[in-house]
Design a protein that fits this description.
Strand content of chain A: 5-15%
Low-confidence stretches of chain B: none
Shape of chain B: globular
Mean pLDDT of chain B: 92
Strand order of the largest sheet of chain B: 4-5-10-6-7
Helix content of chain B: 25-40%
Oligomer: heterodimer
Strand content of chain B: 15-25%
Distance between the termini of chain B: 58 Å
Number of helices of chain A: 5
Low-confidence stretches of chain A: none
CATH topology of the largest domain in chain B: Uridine Diphospho-n-acetylenolpyruvylglucosamine Reductase, domain 3
Number of domains of chain B: 3
Order of helices and strands of chain B: EHEHEHEEHHHHHEEEEEEEEEHHH
CATH architecture of the largest domain in chain A: Roll
Number of helices of chain B: 11
CATH topology of the largest domain in chain A: Ubiquitin-like (UB roll)
Strand order of the largest sheet of chain A: 2-1-5-3-4
Radius of gyration of chain A: 15 Å
Helix content of chain A: 25-40%
Structural class of chain A: alpha+beta
Largest sheet of chain B: 5 strands, antiparallel
Largest sheet of chain A: 5 strands, mixed
Shape of chain A: globular
Number of strands of chain A: 5
Order of helices and strands of chain A: EEHEEEHHHH
Mean pLDDT of chain A: 94
CATH class of the largest domain in chain B: Alpha Beta
CATH superfamily of the largest domain in chain A: Beta-grasp domain
Structural class of chain B: alpha+beta
Chain lengths: 152, 293
């Protein structure tokens, strides 16, 4: 099977129960994709598949044949992502950092679909991702300042 | 290597023919948001997974014609949320989709999967039940349409045969002076399994004051099957929505259905919440019908 990972076609041998997160971490080495709960409750493994934000722990890799996957590693040169990341740094939005890649992916996805999002839109966009350090307000402020109404 | 096999047919006929031949151990997988963790926790152990997720052209649609709304089984919750058809009289579906899971779950989780997984917490089941939905089940031998009421046998159990796939959910769009609404209680707003949820489909007579019909569906009923509050519904017909009517309806609801007690919440707490939801939904739906809500 073949998956387009961050623009590059990659071929894999997978077990039927291998999930997308397993292949991305173990076979491609995309370590920004983290496993938290493995049951879809924490959203830490969120990435984009065919342009849609999904939990990669709830998808079988074998069901992703021919699809396009985008992880944080694929957005390192992206100007929007850079702006959001810098805003996270300025606002101390990363404490332990475990949820940060997923928060960045969800925020970038929001910014793409909804220019100048309101704080409420930002809250909905990140609502599926748990931050165990309770840094939500710093995260919301970061996104708001980087691309929301608050953006300069 | 696991002993599980994944069969990914390229069309629905191949899937159905395969399922007719395989007599046991088959599980249908769409997005897998419910099934994958359950397999990994060994709560279910199918020997073959039949992947229907690629049949988007056949089973992913929301169409209205002749007063009937048809929702393909592979329609995602995001599709439901973004559909302009799920407003006004079908607000209950929009309201349920809005707080279903979280964005990245809604992007893949399907309407058919929510019904077929038949967990007692599923939120779309009460909504479709209040709407009087019918389910189209297809197999290699043909198709049949059954009411959603009676389709669920218990927790995680339905009357679907192993050779069948749920293809479509359909229902008559409420006519005339009507509105629908949905309420759900969880420990937080998003990404949470409901402690109790309720859907109401209400219609009023031409005077806009007298209830013509009501369907009230709830999950977390103690026999593990979402159910209609039939006695409460019957009581409401012909009544005006007054403080007294609501109080009496709440009382009937409280004695009509016993709700589950488990580690999440007690049955008596769930019942109290359900009574509050009944009041909220009656006021909201009747208000919207009068154009004042």
């Amino acid at each position: 099977m073949t998956i387009n990972v961050n623009g590059a076609e990659r071929s894999f041998q997978v077990d039927p129960l291998d999930r997308l997160i397993d292949v991305l971490r173990d076979q491609v080495g995309m370590k920004s994709v983290k496993e938290g709960c493995g049951t879809g409750d924490c959203g830490i493994c969120a990435i984009l598949v065919d342009g849609k934000l999904v939990n990669s722990c709830l998808m079988l890799a074998a069901q992703c044949d021919g699809r396009r996957v985008l992880t944080l590693e694929g957005l390192l040169g992206d100007p929007d992502m850079k702006r959001i990341q810098e805003s996270f740094v300025v606002n101390n939005a990363a404490q332990c950092g475990f949820c940060t890649p997923a928060m960045l992916m969800a925020s970038w996805d929001l910014a793409r679909h909804s220019p100048k999002p309101t704080p409420d839109e930002i809250k909905v966009a990140i609502s599926g991702i748990l931050c165990r350090c309770t840094g939500y307000y710093q995260i919301i402020d970061s996104v708001h300042q980087a691309c929301g109404e608050g953006a300069k | 290597m696991s002993s599980l096999e994944l069969f990914s047919p390229t069309n629905l006929d191949d899937a159905l023919n395969f399922m007719l031949r395989e007599d046991k151990g088959v599980a249908v997988i769409a997005s897998g948001t419910d099934l994958i963790p359950r397999i990994r926790k060994k709560q279910v152990s199918p020997s073959v997974l039949v992947d229907i997720s690629s049949f988007q052209n056949d089973l992913r649609y929301i169409r209205e014609s002749g007063g009937t709304l048809r929702v393909g089984a592979l329609t995602t919750l995001t599709d439901v949320l973004e559909s302009p058809l799920m407003r006004d009289k079908l607000s209950a579906l929009h309201e349920a989709a809005e707080i279903f899971g979280a964005p990245q779950v809604r992007n893949v989780a399907t309407v058919g999967g929510n019904i077929c997984s038949a967990a007692s917490s599923e939120d779309l089941i009460p909504v479709f039940m209040a709407l009087g939905a019918q389910l189209k089940l297809v197999s290699a031998k043909g198709e049949r349409t059954v009411p959603l009421e009676g389709f669920l046998k218990g927790k995680r159990a339905t009357k679907m045969k192993p050779s069948e796939i749920l293809a479509e959910v359909s229902f008559e769009v409420p006519k005339g002076r009507s509105w629908t609404g949905f309420e759900k209680l969880g420990r937080r707003n998003m990404l949470i399994i409901s402690l109790v949820s309720m859907a109401l489909s209400l219609s009023m007579k031409d005077d806009l004051q007298t209830i013509a019909g009501a369907r009230i569906a709830m999950n977390r009923v103690s026999d593990r099957i979402p159910a209609l509050a039939v006695k409460t519904q019957d009581f409401l017909v012909g009544k005006r929505v007054t403080t007294e009517t609501i109080a009496q309806a709440q009382k009937i609801l409280g004695s009509e259905l016993a709700l589950t007690s488990d580690f999440r919440a007690s049955g008596s707490y769930r019942t109290e919440v359900a009574q509050v939801y009944l009041k909220r939904l009656l006021l909201r739906c009747s208000g919207r019908i009068r154009g004042s809500g």
